[in-house]
Amino acid sequence: MSRNIMRYITAFLLFIHFPQSTWGAIYGGPVTNKTTGHRYYLLSPNTWAGAEAEAVTLGGHLATINDAAENDYVISLFARSGWPYWIGLNDAESEGEFRWVSGQALGFTAWGDGQPSDADYAASVQGVTNYWLTLPGEEIHPAFVEVVPETVGPIGLVGMMLSVLTPWGRRRRRKLSCRRAG
Predict the structure, then answer these.
(1) pLDDT tens digits, residue range 42-99?
(2) Is residue 15 part of a domain?
(3) Is 4 contained in some domain?
(4) Whole-angstrom distance, CA of residue 64 vs CA of residue 56
(5) Which domain CATH number covers 111?
């Protein structure tokens, strides 16, 4: 096939695969953390709720930051000094009780001086130290998204299908079974 036909086919497949709400929304990524396997994206500027809705269409949530190393890692991927980026932390339900939108427990925080404030939604800022602050959710900022891959189990989906569903798997199990001689 010619190169132009392949481009049209690729464009068509992208068109039917991705919902319109995500078009133009991804500024960076995906980048996979080799340690955790989590994928990170940078989304275009939006409100906190709009960014979370876009994150869900990608199969994730606004980033959940579990420790200082992850905080530095995510910021180092995409951030520009002094700009706030939405993360998945907020206290919108109950003032002062911050929760991750992913449902994970809050253990680590990196609040800047005088933070958190009365605003409900957290953003991460790159500086001499990478810190967090709270902002009104209606403000427009880029966002960090984290996608945690789902696992099927220790043998994985392909291994499970081969061992359970295929004739090869059944024959293999029969060969390994013990039979009494005679």
Answers:
(1) 999 999 999 999 999 999 999 999 999 999 999 999 888 788 999 999 999 999 999 9
(2) no
(3) no
(4) 13
(5) 3.10.100.10
